[in-house]
Amino acid sequence: MLDALIPLVSLIILLFFSFQLFGDNSSYGPNQIALLCSMGVAVLIGLKNGYQWHEMEKAIVKGISLSLGAVMILLAVGSLIGTWLLSGTVPTMIYYGLQIINPAWFYAAACLVCGIVAMSIGSSWTTAATIGVAFIGIAGGFDMSPAITAGAVISGAYFGDKLSPLSETTNLAPAVAGSELFSHIRYMLWTTVPSILIALVLFLILGLSENADMAGNSERIEVLTKTLQETYHISVLNLLPLAMLLFLAYKKMPAFPAVFIGALVGAVWAVIFQQDLIAQLASDGLSGVTATATVVWTALFDGIKIASDNAEINDLLSRGGMSSMLNTIWLVISALSFGAVLEHLGMLRKIVESILSSVKSVGGLIASTVATCFGTNLVTADQYMAIVMPGRMYRQAYKDRNLDPLVLSRTLEDSGTITSPLIPWNSCGAFMIGAMALGSYEYIFYCFFNLINPFVAILYGFIGFNIKKLSTN
Fold it and tell me: Best label site of 16, 74, 344, 365, fewest CB within 10 Å?
């Protein structure tokens, strides 16, 4: 047990000093070093216990290989953001959002809309990278908190993802626990619906409390919308790349090709509708086809840099490209390397076995599962691992207590899926920070749905509410 805890304690200490020394910039290198140094500590313990380096190296390579699908999606999302900013897709969503949405219910609307979209397409990542980016832009127009907006987007995205039969995690949890998909979704409603309702109320309260500051903001919004009109050709047609991407996701096309096709369609749309902007962005001496090809190609790999007279618009719309995701990929690879070593050395299993030895009640078992899923997300930086590993480890314990597999599959989702974006170095947390260009970790405190849902699951366990037993027949 001491061997198992030393690398975790090392990581916690190094991450603490990383944040103290570098603040919100700690994910841009310092946290990666903390993860790799902690991995080194685990490797030394493994060598001491008789493991061979080549075995641990294979585990690291295998752990990293699990992230390659996510890495490809991250790169595709970077390109998508770049071309959708160039084509006017995201600016058009921002423009119409500023016209339609009332600041008083803005946060709640962001949560609800993202929830509906994610439920339709089964992807919290795609929702955050498209609709979420637009809501962050609208928040800038209203001078509202980007951290709260990100919390609302993530809350809605994970609520919808969790209840969608198209979602990978929603299919994975019942497969690991041994329950049936649609029974699993229906059973999750008992914990998920109260959690999202509480979250919506909190977002409404926050929106109403900020509404008093919006009275004198109409002039500022008018300036922003005018700048968008001057910079882009604003048209409903600009939203067709979004509609096409959502259609592809709904048709269950894998995320990477769907997102990259969306990026390429955005590039075509930019050529058709934004020739004036392309001419402004082209380097001196370039014109015609050469200028268009250069600007569009650059948007795919390095994003765009708007140079209007409005600094807010410039900051908001100057980003994207594959290069913008490289730091996120670096963080994910470092975190997965650390988690892979701990799993290979049996450190995580040792900790879980110790927890199970002290569990005396159903509530304690569910609380332990939630804690293990969160801890796995923390250590392995992968939500799939946070579902599969605890699911395998706890399956027999739930059966021994005569609990239906639905209880385990629901708990895995109430914790493994939900808590992943709350950890900045987890693949999900890193993605959310990168896709929405968040400047700090403050958003974590406003992911109300993600914070509330695990506690609802634990509460049900201790009071015995809606805990399904195995049939005695």
Answer: 16
**Separation CA 217–CA 5 (nearest Å):** 52
Nearest one of 116, 178, 160 to 399, comparing CA atoms: 178
Condensed to tens digits (0 to 9), the pLDDT of residues 58-72 reads 999 988 887 787 788
Q: What is the dihedral of CA 434, 438, 443, 444, to 10 degrees?
A: 30
The CB-side HSE value for 89 (13 A sphere, CA atoms) comes to 31
Q: Residue 359: what are its φ and ψ, rounded to 5°?
A: -80, 125
Handedness of CA 304, 291, 94, 417 (dihedral sign): negative
Range scoring the smallest mean pLDDT among 126-130, 205-209, 213-217: 213-217
Sign of the alpha-carbon torsion through 116, 118, 122, 126: positive
According to DSSP H, which parts of 66-123 are helical?
68-87, 89-100, 106-121
Q: What is the pLDDT of residues 299-354, one digit of tens each?
A: 999 999 988 887 777 877 888 899 988 887 887 788 788 888 988 898 877 877 78
Distance (Å, whole) CA 215 – CA 142: 11
Cβ atoms of 371 and 458 closer than 8 Å: no
Residues 121, 249: Cα–Cα separation, whole Å = 5
Residues 132 and 90 sit within 8 Å (Cβ to Cβ): no
> Residue ranges of the domains in the chain?
2-65+345-423+449-463, 68-324
Q: Which residues contact 327 (CB under 8 A, 6 or more apart)?
A: 27, 28, 29, 434
State percent of the chain over pLDDT 90. Answer: 38
Round to whole Å and give the CA distance between 290 and 55: 51
CA-based end-to-end distance of the chain: 41
Measured CA to CA, the distance from residue 99 to residue 142 in angstroms comes to 11
| Torsion angle of C-alpha atoms 156, 161, 162, 165, degrees rounded to 10 | 140
Q: What is the pTM of this model?
A: 0.77
At residue 221, does pLDDT exceed 80? no
Give the pLDDT of residue 456.
96
DSSP per position, 62-79: HHHHTTHHHHHHHHHHHH
Instruction: Residue 344: name the closest of 50, 120, 23, 89 by CA.
Output: 50
- Which of the 8 DSSP states describes residue 122? S
